Each structure stands twice: as C-alpha cells, then as structure tokens.
C-alpha cells in the first residue's frame, strides 16, 4: 500500500467530514440565523448536538474498526457526510437542520479511528507519524475549500451544501477503492482487550477535553462574531478560508513533535490558542483575519499532537489511541458550545471568549508524559 495514496485518500476523507460536514456549520451560521431565526443559545445547542453525535460515532468506530476493518468504517464515514450535508441543504425548518447537523457530525467520529488504524498498519514506522499528521491536516483543507464554495453559492447557501454532499459521494467511492480490506491476522491481534486507562492516559483525556471546550468558541461562533465585529459577509468568508489554509500547517506537526518533544509542543500551542481565542473575542475588523489564521494553524497542530500522543499511549491499539482522546475533544466542544453561547447572550462576546481562553490556559498545564 503506497503511503502517498493512503495519505491522499485519508486527507480527502478528513477534509470532507471535518471541513465540510462538521465545521462548515460555523461558516454558514449567519445564513442559518437569518433563515431560521437562531439565537446564540440555539446555535450553540445545535452545534453541541453535532459534537454529541461525534462522541457516539467515535465510540462505535473505535470498537468496529478492528472487527470490520478500516475500509468498511471509513466508507460509513463518507456515507454519513454525504447524507448529513444533503439533509442540511434540503432543510425546510430548524428541526430538519438539526437532524442534518447530527448526521453530518457523526461522520467525523466515524472517520478518524479507521484512518489512524489503516496508516498504523500499512505505513512503515519511519513514515507513520508524518502520514498520520498529513491525514489529520485534511480539516484545514476542507475548511479552506468550503470558503470559496460559500462565496460561489452567494445567497443560495443550500447549493453549497449540495456541493459538499456531491463531493462526499466522490470521496467515499475513492475510499472504497483505495483503503485495503480487513487483513486477517493483523486485525485479530487488534481484538486483544484494550486497557481503557493505560499509563499516561488520564492527562491525555483531560487535556483533550479542555482543548475541545476552549476551541468551541471560534469554531461555532467565529464567523458570526466576525460579521458582528465589522467584517462584511465576504470578508468574513475570506477569514474562514484563511483559517483553513493556515490549518494545513498541521501537516508539520509530526516533525514539530519529534524536534521539540510532545510536552513542550503541547504547552506552547495551547497557550497560543488561548491567546488567539481571547484576542478574537475582544477585537474587530481586519485583525480578525490574522487572528483566525493563528487559530487555524495552532488548532490543527494540536489535534495532530493529540493524535500522536494517543498512539504513543496506546501503541498496540491505534484506533482506540486516536478515538478516545478525539472523543474527549468532541465532548469538550459539546459542553463548550452552549456554555459559550449562553455567556455571550447573558454577558458579552469578550467575556465568553475570555472564559474559553482561560480553559485553554489551564489545559496547557496538563502535559504529555510520553516523548
């Protein structure tokens, strides 16, 4: 199995599931608000439902991957992305919109464990960290591409979501043709019971949850805040594109971790993410674009570090090593989104984003115990 082919198809599936099916909700939040009359609390609750769907799906994918094989579960992720985005496109009311967001959100939970598993099983040891983080950086690619699609669709936001759905179908077919099927003996070894609390796992889980809670501010409300902070709809979409493009730097996470070490890289990145979140909530105008770029680059780097951290804690169970901490990231986002929305409604945006930033600062102090 070519590392290049596996990396390309994995990056594309992550781009579709994370960049389109999950995080494009924040990009289109102003349009959804105008069409369906969402307030901050309702918008946060719908975002939270996506994260909860992710939590359920990632548990299922983590358990199913060693049994059904990476290809089957990855194909299911693509199908969920296609169905969810198509449902959002066709939504006539808030209820159908929320159902589509839930289905779309589940695709991300289904995607990460099988891809991490496939890379761990089919890429040589000297290249595995780099390929893992390249695949993970697909989120940045998807976020970046979603922006031009949004601009091209103009006021017809449903058309953009139909494009997302069609792209998901194409990528799903590619996944089915590329990822190797269940490989028998190697998969049976993966059925050995996984120790849920392995050495070093507790810091991993707590830090992941805090990262998720703090990052929910910009992912859920970033574009809405940008529009309210003086950016035009077009400029705020450009900001989203820049955020995604900067996220592609997450592909360098493997090299960063090998040079600086996981612990130092984690603490530094979390503090930068906290600063970007606090600044984003406090300023307005064009400076938001630069702040979003910092956020995008550092967020994707952090998810790459979580991925590597989890695989080091669970080297014999890569699907679980990625699935468990990514579950905690989503759980943090599920709790963070409505809380940040409520703080924004009850107080001010700077207060809400400041609380998110404080969560990230605390999380920065929880460091990996692995190298």
UniProtKB/TrEMBL annotation:
Its main location: membrane. It is found in: Cell membrane. It is a multi-pass membrane protein. Keywords: Membrane, Transmembrane, Transmembrane helix. The chain crosses the membrane at residues 36-61, 73-104, 159-179, 191-218, 238-258, 265-283, 289-311, 318-335, 347-366. Residues 1-371 form the Major facilitator superfamily (MFS) profile domain. InterPro entries: MFS_4, MFS_dom, MFS_trans_sf. This is YbfB/YjiJ family MFS transporter.
